[in-house]
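During the reporting period the student researcher (J.K.) took over the structure-prediction task from the postdoctoral fellow and processed the backlog of single-chain submissions. One of the processed entries is reproduced below for the supervisory committee.
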Amino acid sequence: MIKVRNLTKYYGGALGIEDVSFTVKTGEIVGLLGPNAAGKTTTMRILTCFLPATSGEATIAGHDVFNESLKVRRRVGYLPENVPLYNDMRVNEYLSYVDDETNS
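J.K. obtained the following structure tokens:
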């Protein structure tokens, strides 16, 4: 269901992740473990279409995270540590806003 091949991300001249490859089959449960600055958050942000990779390939449920980001986002639930929400919106207002943006 998740296929990652040679994923690399540079932030300017700084290397975030390098040549990350793994596969997660349907029904498997996995966790990304590692020390601070190991690339866990960068990898998750790329896989959830919040951040582009510098190079490599990644698919979720057969959908390319770079070219089919809307299809990927419909299949993935991701709640980062720092939520990118509008703090002045109530939950129902935010969900309505996201639904309007997705369907436009």
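The committee noted the following: The chain has one domain: 2-103.
J.K. will present the remaining backlog at the next meeting.
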